[in-house]
Amino acid sequence: MSKVYLIGAGPGDPGLLTLRAKELLETADVVVYDYLANKAFLDFCRKDAEIYYVGKKGGDHTLPQDKINDLLVDMAKSGKVVARLKGGDPFVFGRGGEEAEELIAAGCDFEVVPGVTSAVAAPAYAGIPITHRSFTSSVSFITGHEDPTKTESSLNWEAFAKSGSTLVFFMGVKNLPHITENLMKAGMPGDTPAALVRWGTTCRHRSLVATVATMPEEAQKHGFAPPSLFVVGGVATLHDKLAWYEKRALLGKGVVVTRSREQASDLTRLLGAEGACCYEFPAIEIAPLTDVAPVDAAIDSLYDNDWVVFTSANGVDCFFERIDAKGLDARAFAGIRIAAIGPATAKKLAERGLRADFIPERFVAESVVEGLLAQDVAGKKVLIPRAREARDVLPEKLAEAGCTVTVLPVYDTRPVDQDPAEIIQAVKNGEIHYVTFTSSSTVKNFFAQIPPEVLKASAVKTACIGPITAATLAEYGFTPDVNAAAYTVPALAQAVIDDARRGA
């Protein structure tokens, strides 16, 4: 059944997308999205979904509104389910009503999915409650950019100036002098508190507090531009006291995450929780083996081993893919002892019903060997499922201790072919502050695409997960600016956060 869903994407923070909106994005045949709708939401879409960008930015219309209407109607009439993703709420200055009217006229079925409006969310992230018993019990949402074809303004400036309500102007930055002049002419005192919030709720969130009289000059001085909300009223004085979001250590800091796309989410989430603008630039990708026969054979003779040592979460996942394919489960490991190189690997094992018998204190191969020798591994049979390309320290040291070691490749890692232009330009623009490396392969493959000189000519800091990665980074002429206290992703994220706090 074809239908067009007019979906509010919220103000930009991915966490403010509604569950209903996510559900529809995951199932829609076509997604049509705006400039203010976070592109991260496209990750929810089906891989075969048709994606159309129809954003409007600073008067530059990628697709005029009438053409957007035609697109929605055409897609619906062709029998497709369409997710029309609009920033904020579709019925709050989102022209959702106009699109709904066009759909009705064309005989197309539609549904409205409300979203969190920026008029509420952006001031809230800036510590400004739009109503407060000490200041006002009402609020007005006003466009700062009326339909240019109207012969006269429909805004009642005198009513706004004397209402005592909090006033929230959408799209009003360019017209700030006009707005403030009209408010003061209508009787509003020039010293009335006011605030601007730009890119509210996102990693680029900024705010500015002044007065109605001084705001145009202050906005220009501080470089405020669209998209910004203009908030007028006594509640703006609460900004300094309640601005919780702006205390985040990484707010506005660009951080490059070089982990594989499959693994990047944890680091991105931890950094994003502190306000970072994360650039996912996976230097490697996890690739399945073309020939799984050796893995299947190893599983058939799994009971021959005394120990199985997993050196990564990927190794666990890929090994268990074949275990699952053979109709087996954790019981295949009966009588076998299991080692995990770190807590993330141990967690993956636990999800599969296996508890690691050994986890080293330090999460590098040398510590694994030392710990296993203390576990009386000498002379035992050891299976190591891992990437095809990996350091040989672990198997070599175990072999020296008299172990019979089988190294079993269960997946490949390979460089990702991608366009580095966005990262290079962001570095040159000063928009990136950290590049994180979680393995030697991420270092090598990152610099295979982005010349080291690009970073050396900037103030970008490098952050490493451990000494092996740091040693590889040194080959390119860098000493890590940030080192993780422990060789884990959470520790790396914390190290970056701590460094940003020190530099604040």
Automatic annotation (TrEMBL):
NCBIfam families: cobA_cysG_Cterm, PRK06136.1. GO terms for biological process: cobalamin biosynthetic process; methylation; siroheme biosynthetic process. InterPro entries: 4pyrrol_Mease (IPR000878), 4pyrrol_Methylase_sf (IPR035996), 4pyrrol_syn_uPrphyn_synt_sf (IPR036108), 4pyrrol_synth_uPrphyn_synth (IPR003754), 4pyrrole_Mease_sub1 (IPR014777), 4pyrrole_Mease_sub2 (IPR014776), CobA/CysG_C (IPR006366), Siro_Cobalamin_biosynth (IPR050161). This is uroporphyrinogen-III C-methyltransferase. Pathway: Cofactor biosynthesis; adenosylcobalamin biosynthesis; precorrin-2 from uroporphyrinogen III: step 1/1; Porphyrin-containing compound metabolism; siroheme biosynthesis; precorrin-2 from uroporphyrinogen III: step 1/1. Its EC number is 2.1.1.107. Residues 266-493 form the Tetrapyrrole biosynthesis uroporphyrinogen III synthase domain. Belongs to the precorrin methyltransferase family. GO terms for molecular function: uroporphyrin-III C-methyltransferase activity; uroporphyrinogen-III synthase activity. Keywords: Cobalamin biosynthesis, Methyltransferase, Porphyrin biosynthesis, S-adenosyl-L-methionine, Transferase. The gene is cobA. Residues 3-214 form the Tetrapyrrole methylase domain. It comes from Solidesulfovibrio carbinolicus.
